[in-house]
Amino acid sequence: MENLLAKVYxxxxxxxxxxxxxxxxxxxxxxxxxxxxxxVNTITSKREIDPTIVKFLANxxxxxxxxxxxxxxxxxxxxxxxxFIAVLGAAGLAIGLALQGSLANFAAGFLLIVFRPFKxxxxxxxxxxxxxxxxxxxxTTRLATPDNKTIIVPNSKLTGDNxxxxxxxxxxxxxxxxxxxYGDDIDKARNIITEILSQDERILQDPPMKIAVSELADxxxxxxxxxxxxxxxxxxxxxxTTEKVKKRFDAEGVSIPFPQRDVHVYEHKET
Length: 271
Known about the structure:
With 271 residues, the chain is an alpha+beta fold. The chain folds into three domains: 2-98, Helix Hairpins (Orthogonal Bundle), CATH 1.10.287.1260; 117-165, SH3 type barrels (Roll); 171-252, Alpha-Beta Plaits. Helix content is 52%, strand content 18%. It has seven helices and ten strands. The strands form three sheets. It has a five-stranded antiparallel beta sheet with strand order 4-3-2-1-5. The protein has a three-stranded antiparallel beta sheet with strand order 7-9-8, with helices on one face. A two-stranded antiparallel ribbon has the order 6-10. Helix 1 (2-46) runs antiparallel to helix 2 (51-76) and helix 6 (186-198) crosses helix 7. The longest helix has 45 residues, at 2-46. It is rod-shaped and about 125 Å long. It starts with a helix and ends in a 19-residue tail after the last helix. Residues 260-271 have low confidence and may be disordered.
């Protein structure tokens, strides 16, 4: 009996301290992980980051720290954790390879939410498409086209290419080209264009508009007209000015060569 008690005492002396230490590491580690989760949640919430990202980062911090302390507790018990870590690493690699497309979209969504190159309501061009941003999710971005189509764009396509945001500045320059015949009066045509634009209250005074002869083409003398407007007025000004110039040219006897094969067409984007 005495020998049995001695062996029990010996085992407790050897392993009891390790077990108590492992339990202490587990409990304290879990407590620290919870505190860090709250800290991360508080910090990210103050930065106006998307709630989905906030929750994900907080939970990721908690799980990462908790797993670390579990492995540390197992190491205190004398359990070899090297193989356990290797298994976790292999499993993580396999999952990452299987979900590499989704993970790429997730990482891209995270960057878009953090750096905010655009926001809901902006008209953007990116990933080979253009439209108004309706929603920014963690994996995809939803756009609405001017003809009321919905486009779901993977976030990795947006971050993998240039993003053009037409709404950031608030104002845009309207680029228009008007061609007249070689026999027409250049000053008269310029005055007509200037008068039409000057009478439009939507045209901004600063920056000043630019009207000039841009090209002596094969069949026409081409004018550029570049007024600045608020982004919301872009297309209305473009369409209405084009119509007004055509009517005034007809009324004033200024010819518009047809066909104008050499008129340079500027690229316009819908807003």
